[in-house]
Amino acid sequence: MAQALLGLGGNVGDVRATLDEAIALLINGKDVTLTLRSSDYRTPPWGVTDQPPFINLAIAVETTLSPRALLTHALNVERALGRNRVGARRWGPRPIDIDLLAYDDVTVDEPGLTLPHPRLFERAFVLVPLAEIAPDRVVAGRRIAEALAGMDTTGIEKLSARG
């Protein structure tokens, strides 16, 4: 089984409920198994700043799916939860966003799939939850915790668990 890291986020609707539903749909118990889930974090918008804050989290999974098949599965989950990427504003508001961040130590550069994620080390909103669950994981020669140490995490707030 391969180990993959995914980042999830959104800022439209009941985001925390949508994130929980996304994880439930991703983890089908057959091809994809959840191994770790970070806390939820409220994060400032990135790229397009005139929108509500996001809720972000990271998960680690074990999977028998190929990187492309895992990405396709994630995009199908996005669509099932109301995300339409066609014609959407890049980095704009969305109910759900699922990014495949890393897949084992695989490097891929194909149309529609780049691994590790090309902006992974530019985004504190991804690195903060990722460092919670995989601080010592090395991606593209960098330890997640060390990559985070050099980031500005202003405005990122760990949310309390829901009960």
Named CATH topology: Alpha-Beta Plaits
Low-pLDDT residue intervals, each spanning 5 or more residues: none
Beta-strand residue percentage? 25-35%
Q: How many beta-strand elements?
A: 10
What is the ordering of alpha helices and beta strands? EHEEEHEEEHEEHE
Q: Kindly state the mean pLDDT as a whole number? A: 93
Task: Give me the CATH architecture, please.
Answer: 2-Layer Sandwich
- What's the helical proportion of residues? 25-40%
Helices, by number, come to: 4
Give a short account of the largest sheet: 6 strands, antiparallel
Backbone CA Rg: 15 Å
Explain what the structure shows.
The chain is of the alpha+beta class and 163 residues long. It has a single domain, classed as 2-Layer Sandwich (Alpha-Beta Plaits). It has 4 helices and 10 strands, in the order βαβββαβββαββαβ. The chain has helices spanning 15-26, 67-80, 124-133, 144-149; strands spanning 2-10, 32-37, 41-43, 54-63, 97-103, 108-110, 113-115, 138-139, 142-143, 157-158. The strands form 3 sheets. Strands 1, 2, 3, 4, 5 and 10 form a 6-stranded antiparallel beta sheet that branches. A hairpin with a 2-residue loop joins β6 and β7. The longest helix is centred in the middle third of the chain and has 14 residues, at 67-80. The mean pLDDT is 93.
